Amino acid sequence: MTETLLEIQDLNVEYKTKSVLSGKEKTIHAVNGVNLKINKGEILAIAGESGCGKSTLAKALMKLIDVKSGKINIDGTNIVNLRNHKELQNFYKKVQIIFQNPYSSLNPKMKIGDILKESLEINTNLGKAEIQKIVEEKISLVGLDKNSLNLYPHEFSGGQRQRIAIARALVLNPEFIIADEPVSALDVSIQAQIINLLRELKEKLNLTFLFISHDLSVIKYLSDRIAIMYLGEIVETGLTEEIFSSPKHPYTQALLSAVPELGTNHKEKISLTGELPSPENLPQGCKFHTRCPQAMDICKTISPKEIDFSPTHNCKCHLYNSMV
Ligand code: SF4
Question: Which residue has a Cα nearest atom 5 of ligand 1?
Answer without folding.
Answer: 317
